[in-house]
Give the backbone structure.
Amino acid sequence: MEERKRTEVELAQKRNDKNVQELIMKLEETMKERQRMDEELKREMETQDLENRKATEELQRAHERVVAMHEQEKARLREELERERNKPRFSLPPIQCPLM
């Protein structure tokens, strides 16, 4: 009887040890999968950051081009205005009415 109980306890302990080992293996697999997913997420975030930086730089360059074109147009209009102001003006002589 005593031997039977000891055998049952040993078998239960072995089953328990096996279950613990299986749980440890599942946990290790889960941790590896999580690490893989974290690395993938990190790569995706780095890619998005790079794309965002490129888009921001492109927008800045486009803005600079628009500002430069605006400044050129303002300068051209100023020059045109100055030329118009400096053109000689002709005026008609005053009308003389004969005295009656």
